[in-house]
């Protein structure tokens, strides 16, 4: 079963945890071959790939992340399985949020809603794993 | 499809990849409920979670990796899947300046010694090799 959004149960579980705790979200991403913009979007005429549409989302979301104190830790391309196997992912991306609350607030903000159509146009499906980071070099760099 | 080691084909594909630049190894980890050390391991019989045994491996591996420019970008507990489905206990992401430095870490003089902690703690995993588009170092 693949998905692009949390189920109501997944959203509820997220909200039931400590909202002040910092988290890292691990994105395993699969893009559409061709972007699927709604016909009334100007991008519909550009004949973009799903990866190109998602890249537009990625660029736009970085500004929003910076505004809320979140930051990308890492993005990796050309993923392939060295141990095990699963979905044929196109990208792995890690984003650190200062708290669960900031991630939820971002998702419902007007600024985010305004760019989300690029994600919908480009993303075929994804896994999104919520990780509570053990303090390490990535955290130390901030302080 | 979780596993414990690369297949011969997977290892060859990694070794023969023409990519010269940095890599990041994304580990999706499932631990044993209880650590399972072998009879001749000094830790044999300890009563501890597999996660604790694996952490010894992760610490030693990160130290060995640092000698060749490797760095741990993330080691954290997987709380849940927010989107999609899976059942991993932890996610560890290690940065290496190139594929050779990863192989050098596997060939480190102390690797055999540290590997018993991986055997004791790890039930299965997936390892996804990626090319960092941007890495905070």
Description:
The complex is a heterodimer of chains A (143) and B (137). In chain A, strands 2-3-1-4 form a four-stranded antiparallel β-sheet. Helices cover 36% and strands 28% of the residues of chain A. Chain A contains five helices and four strands. With 143 residues, chain A is of the alpha+beta class. The longest helix of chain A has 18 residues, at 50-67. In chain A, β2 and β3 form a beta hairpin. The model of chain A is unreliable at 136-143 (pLDDT under 50). Chain B starts with 7 loop residues before the first helix and ends with a strand. Chain B is globular, with a radius of gyration of 15 Å. Chain B has a four-stranded antiparallel β-sheet. In chain B, a hairpin with a 6-residue loop joins β2 and β3. Helix content of chain B is 33%, strand content 31%. Chain B has helices at residues 8-16, 50-66, 99-106, 111-121, and strands spanning 23-31, 71-83, 90-96, 122-135. At the A-B interface, α1, β1, β2, β3 and β4 of A face α1, β1, β2, β3 and β4 of B. β4 of chain A pairs antiparallel with β2 (71-83) of chain B, so a sheet runs across the interface.
Layout of strands and helices, then pairs:
The complex is a heterodimer of chains A (143) and B (137).
Chain A: H1 8-15, E1 23-31, H2 50-67, E2 71-83, E3 91-97, H3 100-107, H4 110-122, E4 123-133, H5 137-140
Chain B: H1 8-16, E1 23-31, H2 50-66, E2 71-83, E3 90-96, H3 99-106, H4 111-121, E4 122-135
Antiparallel strand pairs in B: 1-3, 1-4, 2-3
């Amino acid at each position: 079963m693949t998905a692009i959004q949390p189920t109501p149960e997944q959203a509820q579980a997220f909200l039931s945890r400590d909202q002040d705790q910092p988290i890292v979200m691990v994105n395993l991403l699969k893009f559409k071959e061709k972007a699927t913009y709604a016909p009334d979007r100007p991008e519909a005429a550009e004949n973009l790939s799903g990866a190109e549409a998602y890249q537009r989302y990625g660029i736009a979301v970085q500004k929003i992340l910076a505004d809320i104190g979140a930051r990308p830790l890492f993005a990796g391309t050309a993923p392939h399985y060295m141990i095990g196997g699963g979905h044929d992912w196109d990208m792995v991306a890690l984003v650190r949020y200062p708290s669960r609350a900031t991630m939820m607030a971002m998702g419902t903000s007007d600024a985010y809603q305004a760019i989300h159509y690029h994600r919908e146009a480009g993303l075929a499906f994804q896994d999104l794993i919520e990780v509570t980071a053990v303090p390490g070099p990535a955290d130390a760099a901030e302080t | 499809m979780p596993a414990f080691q690369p297949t011969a084909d997977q290892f060859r594909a990694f070794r023969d990849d023409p990519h010269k630049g940095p890599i990041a190894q994304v580990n999706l980890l499932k631990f044993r409920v209880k650590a399972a050390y072998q009879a001749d391991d000094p830790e044999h019989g300890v009563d501890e979670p597999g996660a604790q045994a694996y952490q010894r491996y992760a610490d030693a591996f990160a130290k060995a990796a640092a000698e060749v420019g490797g760095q741990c970008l993330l080691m954290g507990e997987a709380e849940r899947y927010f989107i999609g489905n899976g059942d991993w206990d932890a996610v560890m992401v290690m940065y290496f300046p190139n594929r050779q430095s990863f192989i050098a870490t596997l060939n480190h003089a102390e690797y055999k010694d540290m590997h018993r902690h991986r055997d004791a703690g790890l039930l299965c995993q997936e390892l996804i090799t990626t090319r960092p588009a941007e890495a905070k170092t």
